[in-house]
Design a protein that fits this description.
Layout lengths: L5 E5 L5 E5 L12 E5 L17 E5 L4 E11 L2 H6 L7 E7 L4 E4 L2 E4 L4 E8 L2 E6 L8 E4 L2
Parallel strand pairs: 8-11
Antiparallel strand pairs: 1-2, 2-5, 3-4, 4-10, 5-9, 6-7, 6-10, 8-9
Length: 144
């Protein structure tokens, strides 16, 4: 996944980073807020859902970009062990409020930095989940 030009927004604990190319958003007019969400407050959760990270609400919601923005989320390996899963099955998911569904996004996992990245074209609610074993979405695994 191509590294974007610069980090415009991130949390102090580096659990989430957004990489923007130049002129994707107007820094003077766009206030980006990132709020960590308690998973208990989100509808659309099912018993089989295997969340590996916190969920993050990135606003302004539904702001569209002319170029992709790289979203990178950090995960804790202990969450994967507790779920009896594998880093190979990690992916970033976007929550679609109208349908109360989580949608898997094509993702890249870096096992060294313990991060998962994807390109997004708008802000929404995002998290890392364990992909179902029969998932057909492509995930790339890197160690660097």
């Amino acid at each position: 996944m191509k590294r974007m030009a610069k980090i415009l927004s991130h949390t102090g604990d580096d659990l989430i980073k957004l990489y923007f190319t130049e002129n994707v958003v107007n820094k003077n007019e766009t206030k980006i807020t990132i709020t960590k969400i308690d998973l208990a407050d989100i509808t659309g959760l099912e018993g089989r859902d295997k969340f590996v990270s916190d969920a993050f609400d990135i606003r302004p919601k539904n702001q569209k970009f002319s170029y992709p923005v790289q979203l990178t989320l950090k995960y804790d390996i202990n969450n994967i062990v507790n779920l009896k899963g594998s880093e190979k099955r990690l992916a970033i998911y976007r929550f679609h409020e109208a349908s109360n569904q989580w949608y898997e996004l094509p993702s890249t996992v870096c096992t060294t930095s313990k991060t998962v990245s994807t390109n997004i074209n708008h802000f929404s609610v995002y998290t890392i989940k364990m992909r179902p074993e029969n998932s057909d979405i492509s995930v790339k695994i890197y160690t660097y």
